[in-house]
Design goal:
The structure holds 2 protein chains of 2 kinds. By secondary structure, chain A is α/β, with parallel strands linked by helices. Helices cover 25% and strands 22% of the residues of chain A. Chain A is globular, with a radius of gyration of 26 Å. By secondary structure, chain B is an alpha+beta fold. Chain B contains 2 helices and 13 strands; from the N terminus they run E-H-E-E-E-E-E-E-E-E-E-E-E-E-H. In chain B, a hairpin with a 2-residue loop joins strand 10 (132-133) and strand 11 (136-139). Classes of the chains: A alpha/beta, B alpha+beta.
Chain lengths: 678, 195
């Protein structure tokens, strides 16, 4: 792999103004201009405040307008001309939408900076005696764990799990058996009893209110990206991509050729032998799980995301050792194996995906993966004394592009459908939804695992053999059920998610203190806790400041996927939430004879039940909480940007955090306050 | 600073057979203002930031001819007990450089276990050092080690006791059982001869 080798370069500041005339003269000497043209206007397609780790790979794309096909380029870093040491760039012309003005672009793939500090990259483009120049600064954080013991990271991501969502989960799950009494509680959730907590700002490169793709890229790459984007930055040929069925395959190259930046999952795997994994109740090619191991301008290119899981981006081969979730249709060929479950006639239709590969077979045959399409088979893997080396489990697949009760019951175009989401615990347990929420549609997938079981299986596989690992676990339907304002689905996904957090924390506590556990959200949504409802009093709503619920807002379509944001409907109260939640019955749930890790879901026979309202059916721009436990957890206190999660995780892995961790112990041991639950 | 070192009378036999977890020795002491202080280790790589001048006491023991897994139990219970303690094992202890010669260290209390009063030096979530292999403390055979007992923070003082015991490997247990059986047989025959 060619790359910039910059270690040991002197940090000499470049005075561009003084260098420019000299460069202009040099380039003018090579090529005599026929006519006087305007100087090239140059742009480096890295975002403002671009940050990387030492040796983290990224693509350096330089675009120049007023640049002919014979224009030349020079790259200067910290005052040193490194052009000759760079890999041969990909060169293209006529990239932008302005066909009247010549433009050129150079892309240097997989470059890296090996010295920490603020580095300066200057691109000089010369054409016909005219020079254009641009300067980009890059912040570089050192990553050198040396001989420190390797640490693991488990990042639990509750999609859209802002403070109201966390609190609602606690009130519903921990208020059972009269543990919630007039505002007091006796127990907290697993995610609420961690050593450190902070708040995370979530905006993305082009919007105050982000979607789940740039937020995933923020913690996975350390950089802001644009809406709907996984681990790449925009460039000037993006407009050529056309998502219509007739042009999708021919134009998707313009969404896949963007300048990329390596994720922490890819980085740790490439340089430090980490095992990597993603677990989600969503389509596993959806935004949040896709952010750790795929690179695309368009999140809807889910077949290409799945293909990248197998083929790799910066290094060839699979990017993960564990892949567990929904979205089976993105992995199976159009003609599905008869032994497969329920997905007849779907899969990687070449019209949608561009190929007819059987990615599951490739992973199992060529790369040593074990495949589990059902909960029964996943739990059989969990019961094995020696887990497999690699694991892929795909427990839900969209047939015909519909997703029933999992999101909104909307039919989505098969080629853009991140619609293979698994059902929430509420539906997997067979509980009855409230009247305003659609009945569960299992779509034939009646043997789906719970997130805590998936998490346990992932940890068993990833921790096998003693290599360190990094794992992302997503509770996806907190978000997906919040889009259509389905409170029961939302809150039960929080509950299921917290059980998975418990699995991760149990491993961390038993694993010699070497696993950092983080729990956070990618962005917020608009659910609010508005009070309690009295189940013995019909539609009465108690303990609400306004004595009424928020105006009802229903999002008919999933606005992320359809591009349509439903206008608020202020026509009436949200009657479903007025009725509160049904009594919960402790689930006698042990299907297939295998008990879940945490089999007990709460019994709630309280008279008073939580009432919530939704202001919109979409994301909001509020900061979200993060809690942390394990080595280096104190780094996650305070109010910081989502991209800082990446650099804080890297700092934990590359530093001996023991002196810091002692402060956590000291606080716990010496400065505890009297508990309200004495 | 009151110290007591007890060596069981059957130490030699224990060291040879090495299948029982009876202590090789126990050490009792009291950390107080008369003890020396040092900047203890937070890990195998860093000195502590909260224990820069903690009181400590030391004692030594020699591992048996087999080496392998050992268990060191710290007990801080009782009136006037050590408020919070740390255990270390060194090859050669230098209080001016607590990272030098460090074999293993263990904060005896977990983060959430503020009320815990004893711990096991089978490796747990807070154990570290090159002697910690998997979940066990592994020592070389016939080697003299220094055990250092210190406070967690500078203000931690009080009484404690520590016991050292070898933990047998399953295969060693079989050998040890056979050895004990042989010794018993020899002793029995000698006894019979004497009669």
């Amino acid at each position: 792999m060619k790359s910039i080798q910059l270690a040991g370069l002197a940090l000499v500041g470049l005075i561009t103004a003084s260098l420019a005339p000299l460069l202009a003269q040099n380039y003018a000497g090579r090529r005599a201009p026929a006519v006087a043209l305007a100087a090239p206007t140059v742009r480096i397609r890295l975002p403002e405040r671009f940050r990387v780790l030492t040796k983290q790979l990224f693509d350096l794309r330089v675009e120049a307008v007023n640049a002919s096909p014979t224009a030349t380029i020079q790259i200067v870093i910290d005052g040193t001309d490194v052009t000759a040491t760079l890999p041969t760039p990909e060169f293209s012309t006529n990239n932008d939408a302005d066909t009247a003005t010549p433009d050129a672009a150079w892309v240097y793939r997989s470059v890296h900076l090996d010295t920490s500090g603020v580095r300066t990259i200057v691109a000089n483009v010369s054409d016909a005696g005219q020079l254009g120049t641009i300067t980009q600064r890059v912040g570089v954080q050192d990553f050198n764990p040396g001989n420190l013991p390797k640490k693991n990271i488990i990042l639990f991501l509750g999609d859209a799990m802002g403070t109201a969502y966390r609190d609602a989960g606690r009130i519903v799950a921990q208020s059972t058996n009269n543990r919630f009494r007039e505002g007091f509680f006796d127990q907290l959730q697993n995610m609420d009893t961690m050593a450190a907590s902070g708040m995370v700002m979530t905006y993305d490169l082009d919007r105050i209110v982000p979607d789940s793709s740039p937020t995933a890229s923020a913690w996975s790459t350390g950089n802001k990206t644009s809406d709907g984007t996984h681990g790449v930055f925009p460039d000037n040929n993006d407009f050529k991509f056309n998502s219509s069925a007739a042009t999708l395959q021919a134009t998707k190259q313009f969404a896949l050729d963007n300048p990329k930046v390596e994720t922490l999952w890819e980085y740790l795997r490439r340089l430090y032998g980490y095992k990597t994994g993603v677990v989600s109740t969503a389509d596993i090619a959806d935004a949040t799980p896709g952010g750790e191991g795929s690179h695309t301008l368009i999140r809807a290119l889910t077949y290409d995301i799945a293909r990248q899981y197998v083929d790799g981006t910066f290094t060839p081969g699979p990017v993960h050792d564990v892949i567990l979730g929904g979205g089976r249709e993105h992995f199976e060929p159009a003609t599905v194996n008869a032994a497969s479950t329920t997905l007849a006639g779907n899969g990687r239709n070449p019209l949608n995906s561009g190929d007819n590969r059987n990615l599951i077979t490739e992973l199992t045959t060529n790369f040593g993966f074990t495949y589990t399409p059902t909960r029964t088979q996943l739990n059989a893997v969990r019961a094995q004394a020696t887990p497999p080396d690699r694991l892929i489990g795909l427990f839900w697949g969209a047939a015909g592009g519909t997703n029933g009760g999992t999101t909104s019951g909307t039919t989505l175009a098969a080629n853009t459908g991140a619609n293979g989401n698994m059902n929430v615990a509420y539906d997997k347990l067979g509980l009855a939804r409230t009247a305003d929420e659609p009945a569960a549609n299992l779509n034939g997938f009646t043997d789906q695992p719970f997130l805590d079981e998936m998490t346990d299986a992932a940890i068993r596989v990833l921790s096998k053999g003693g290599a360190p690992f990094i794992l992302m676990v997503e509770g996806a339907s907190i978000d997906k059920q919040s889009h259509p304002n389905h409170a029961a689905g939302v809150i039960w996904d929080v509950i299921e998610f917290d059980k998975a957090v418990g699995v991760g924390r149990a491993f961390s506590n038993a694993a010699l203190g070497k696993t950092l556990v983080l729990v956070t959200a990618d962005h917020d949504q608009s659910m609010s806790i508005v009070g309690l409802t009295d189940s013995a009093n019909g539609s009465g709503v108690l303990n609400t400041r306004s004595q009424s619920l928020y105006p009802r807002t229903i999002s008919v379509f999933d606005p992320i996927l359809s591009g349509t944001t439903a206008a608020p409907n202020n026509g009436g109260n949200n009657t479903g939430e007025v009725g509160g939640f049904p009594d919960y019955v402790e689930a006698p749930f042990s299907p297939n004879g295998v008990s879940p890790v945490f089999p007990i879901y709460p019994t709630n026979v309280n008279r008073y039940k939580i009432a919530v309202g939704f202001r919109t059916g979409n994301h909001t721009g509020s900061s979200v909480p993060i809690t942390a436990d394990g080595p280096g957890s104190l780094l996650f206190t305070g109010y910081f940007d989502q991209t800082d999660i990446f650099f804080k995780m890297a700092r934990v892995l590359s530093t001996d955090t023991a002196p810091l961790d002692e402060y956590s112990k000291l606080v716990s041991k010496r400065y505890s306050t009297v508990s309200p639950n004495y | 600073m009151k110290r007591t070192l007890l060596v069981p009378a059957l130490l030699a036999l224990t060291a040879v057979t090495a299948f029982a977890q009876s202590p090789i020795l126990t050490y009792s002491g009291t950390l107080d203002a008369t003890d020396r202080t040092f900047n203890r280790a937070a890990s195998a790589f860093s000195l502590s930031s909260v224990g820069g001048a903690v009181a400590y006491e030391t004692f030594s023991f020699t591992s048996n001819s087999l080496g392998g897994a050992y268990q060191i139990l710290g007990d801080y219970r009782g009136g006037g007990g050590l408020t919070d303690g740390f255990l270390y094992i060194y090859n050669a202890f230098n209080p001016a450089n607590a990272l030098s010669g460090l074999v293993a260290g263990d904060d005896d209390f977990s983060i959430s276990g503020a009320d815990a009063l004893s711990g096991s030096f089978l490796a747990d979530a807070s154990s570290f050092g090159p002697g910690v292999i998997g979940n066990r403390l592994i020592l070389d055979p016939n080697t003299t080690y220094t055990v250092v007992v210190s406070g967690f923070a500078n203000s931690d003082l009080g009484a404690f006791s520590v016991s050292v015991a070898a933990v047998p490997e399953p295969s060693t247990m079989a050998i040890g059982s056979a050895a004990l059986g042989l010794l018993t047989l020899v002793a029995l025959r000698r006894s019979q001869s004497a009669a």
